[in-house]
Design a protein that fits this description.
ABC transporter involved in vitamin B12 uptake, BtuC
Length: 318
C-alpha cells in the first residue's frame, strides 16, 4: 500500500466515525452555550438511531438511495421531540440538569428495545440494505492526490457535518440570535434585563441539541451499525460531550475534537492495515477511544472554561 492509499484509508475511516460525533457535539455546544447542560446526548442519539432504522426498514423500497437521508431527517426530528423532555424539566421545572440528562440516557435504550420486540418480536432489528456507504464528491474527487485522499470513497454525511459546523459557528458568533443565545449562558439576568427572552433562547439551545444529536445517532446507525439494538449507541454521546469540553464549547473546536475521537475509533477497524499497529491486540484498539476520552476529560476539564451560567437554573423575577 503506497502513501496516498494509506492516507486515503485513514481519512476515509476517520470521517465515517467522526460524522456522528461532530453532529452530536454541535448540539451539545448550542445547549451549553444557552446555559443548559445536556448530558442526555447519548439517549437522544439512541432515539435518532432507533427511529431512523425503523424508517429505513419500512420505506427502503419506496425511496431507494434517498432512504438513509430521509431516515437521518426522521431521526433528527424525533431527537428534537425527545429533547423536549429535558428542556421542559430544566427550563420550566428548574430540575437539575445532570439528573434530567441521566434520565434521558436511562430511558431511551430500554424503550427502543421494548418497541423493537413489539414490532419484530426479537431483541434487535434486521440489517438495513439502504445505507450511506461511501461516495465520491463530484469534481473534487478528480483533483490530483488531494482528491483521492479526501474526496474519493469518502463519507458524504461527514462532509455535510463539516459544512453544518461552519454554518452553526457563523450563527453562534456572527448573528444577533447567536449573541442572545450566548448571553443566556453567560449572564441570564443581564440578558433578561436587556429584553432577551431567556426561556426562549434556552429552548432553542436544547432543541438544537436534540435535532443534532438525533441526526448524529441516525448517521451512526445507517453508516456504521446497520441495525438497532440496545448496544447500538454505546458511549458515542459521552464522546460527543467530551468533544464539547475539549473543543472549549466552540463549534469548530468540537468538530476538530470529534475528528480526533473518530480517528481513535477507526483504529480498531483499520489498525491491522497500518504499519506499526498490526501487532497490537484488537481489544486494546477497541478500548482506546474510551481511555482517550477519560484522559482528555481529566487533563482538559479543569483548564476549559464553560459558559458561566451553564447548568444554573434561571427563575425569572416578577
Amino acid at each position: 500500500m503506497n502513501l496516498t492509499s494509506l492516507l486515503a484509508l485513514i481519512v476515509s475511516s476517520t470521517l465515517v466515525y467522526s460524522a456522528p460525533l461532530i453532529l452530536a457535539s454541535l448540539g451539545g455546544v448550542y445547549s451549553e452555550n444557552s446555559g443548559v447542560v445536556n448530558i442526555g446526548l447519548e439517549g437522544i442519539m439512541t432515539v435518532g438511531a432507533f427511529t431512523s432504522i425503523i424508517f429505513n426498514l419500512t420505506f427502503a423500497q419506496d425511496f431507494g438511495a434517498a432512504t438513509p437521508w430521509l431516515g437521518a431527517l426522521v431521526g433528527a426530528i424525533f431527537g428534537l421531540i425527545f429533547s423536549l423532555l429535558h428542556a421542559f424539566a430544566t427550563i420550566n421545572l428548574h430540575a437539575d440538569h445532570i439528573i434530567s440528562g441521566t434520565v434521558l440516557n436511562l430511558l431511551a435504550p430500554p424503550l427502543g428495545v421494548f418497541l423493537i420486540k413489539a414490532i419484530y418480536e426479537k431483541g434487535q432489528t434486521p440489517n438495513i440494505t439502504a445505507n450511506f456507504g461511501y461516495t465520491n464528491i463530484p469534481g473534487l474527487a478528480d483533483i490530483p492526490v488531494i482528491g483521492k485522499i479526501f474526496f474519493t470513497n469518502t463519507s458524504a454525511p461527514a462532509w455535510l457535518a463539516i459544512i453544518i459546523t461552519v454554518l452553526l459557528w457563523w450563527i453562534l458568533y456572527k448573528t444577533r440570535i447567536g449573541l442572545r443565545l450566548r448571553s443566556t449562558g453567560e449572564n441570564p439576568q443581564a440578558a433578561d434585563t436587556l429584553g432577551v427572552n431567556v426561556y426562549k433562547m434556552r429552548y432553542i439551545g436544547v432543541l438544537t441539541s436534540g435535532f443534532m444529536a438525533g441526526l448524529g445517532g441516525a448517521v451512526f446507525a445507517q453508516s456504521i451499525s446497520g441495525n438497532f439494538s440496545i448496544s447500538t449507541i454505546v458511549g458515542q454521546g459521552f464522546m460527543a460531550l467530551a468533544a464539547v469540553i475539549f473543543g472549549k464549547w466552540n463549534p469548530i473546536g468540537a468538530m476538530l475534537s470529534s475528528l480526533f475521537f473518530g480517528f481513535a475509533q477507526s483504529l480498531s477497524i483499520i489498525g491491522n492495515q497500518l504499519p506499526g499497529f498490526e501487532k497490537i491486540p484488537t481489544v486494546y484498539m477497541q478500548i482506546a477511544p474510551y481511555v482517550i476520552t477519560i484522559v482528555v476529560l481529566v487533563v482538559f476539564l479543569g483548564k476549559s472554561v464553560a459558559p458561566a451560567a451553564a447548568g444554573v437554573n434561571y427563575i425569572k423575577s416578577k
